[in-house]
């Protein structure tokens, strides 16, 4: 049985640019249906899963994921008509009456959201194929099952929190090992995700893209300065939900799409233009936002933990990527275990839609501990052809992968910055050792060197460490055996380890650690073990292999071109090492 999951809508950006050119051309650009992706399951296994952005090179691509679908089919040696079920990550068909309010809304539903529109998108590309049965999965169900499949949890409280599903911003469920019971749903007018994104936009960053910058900046600010504003902007309710008054102000269709009235209310409430204010003021706004968001997360989780008695928590949706708030939740001891989806954003709902469908059929996807290496792998023959076109570059071959990893560890130990581009590409936003930029965490200067000179991004943004799982508790405030292999959890660096790890220790003493298990991620674990033998510390600075505002590299040519652009010391790819000629 082949089940294809698709995250994407039908030409949303094209429709909005045509109907609302002014709103789509500037800082108010907001698009639903981003993070397009595809995933293919076969009899309880993930054959492939990948984001469209890796192919079309548009970060958080809103395009229909034709290339991602084709990659998944090619990985299985299949055609579209070999697929038994196609599962989309939204189910807007049931909401047609909501969009009958005016001509623009009706056309939006017809051209972008309707089942017929999505079927047409498939038929346009796969003309010679019979379109298989199409299933439309509730968006938050897709988010939940994207996390459940990899969790290993038998009973848990599940909370999906994002900007918006079809008409919902937050969904709370209870899972008992066999079935999922919905406990609560909160509408878009109560969306913590949208509110966080509107503040991100207010500060001059990109809506639904740069929220992680605000989260990182928050550590530098004073939350007290704007605490009163955010306390009144996010109201905690007795039913476990929240009220966000500014999100109720958008009355017509355009306002509902672009939150214009909400944005204006935020600027009036704060009393200044955020994009033009000093960085210190931006940091204070970010700190207050992060403080109140964390309070709201505790409020929702605490209410339903008391209601259900469930001690394990599963989180998904874009808000689950706020690792600072989730890290505080973990440290509080409110739950015994917290599992966060490795692809919490909408790209993960491609896998989640397929997983939700097979779950409903009685064949749940169970892949706990499996690393999400579901994308394409580099081929050495292609690498050689590319290097032949670059006379300034040279290539060194290794007998096997282990020899390549030993050489990479030696370069890192010598304080060289290297890219590791080996094996199948990661699914989700995090580079987990297969498309990574690696450096010594013991050299404080590496943080500035990579941020400013190599990645070309703001210097306040922190870097994450990767550490062997058996040693993680020695360097980070984790229990022995506690693992977070997908780089989804913020924890504190142990005080005695801070002098050893200045390049990955954030200003507030935290780090988003990736624990690397010998069984589940053997190649990266070997590199860390070898690094420990050379430096005494099994920790490496691990950031994604890409330049700022570009997706993580996918193809061999992108890997080489990014190496040339970055000016790093070496690229390790497909059992070879690429360097510049002297």
Distance between the termini: 54 Å
Radius of gyration: 23 Å
Helix proportion range: 25-40%
Task: Based on Cα principal axes, name the global outline.
Answer: globular
Mean pLDDT: 95
Biggest beta sheet summary: 8 strands, mixed
Counting DSSP E segments of at least 2 residues, the number of strands comes to: 22
- Please state how the strands of the largest beta sheet are arranged side by side: 13-22-21-14-15-20-16-19
The fraction of residues assigned to DSSP E strands is 15-25%
Helix tally? 21
Low-confidence stretches at least 5 residues in length (pLDDT < 50)? none
Question: Which structural class do the helices and strands define?
Answer: alpha/beta
Give the SSE layout.
Layout: E1 2-7, H1 12-19, H2 21-25, E2 37-42, E3 45-51, H3 53-56, H4 66-76, E4 85-88, H5 103-113, H6 115-125, E5 133-136, H7 139-151, E6 156-161, E7 168-175, E8 180-187, H8 192-202, H9 211-218, H10 227-233, E9 235-236, E10 242-243, H11 253-258, H12 260-270, H13 279-308, E11 312-316, H14 323-332, E12 337-340, H15 348-360, H16 380-388, E13 393-397, H17 401-413, E14 418-421, E15 435-439, H18 445-454, E16 464-468, H19 472-475, E17 490-492, E18 510-512, E19 514-516, H20 522-535, E20 539-544, H21 556-566, E21 570-573, E22 576-580
Parallel strand pairs: 1-4, 4-5, 6-11, 11-12, 14-21, 16-19
Antiparallel strand pairs: 1-2, 2-3, 6-7, 7-8, 9-10, 13-22, 14-15, 15-20, 16-20, 17-18, 21-22
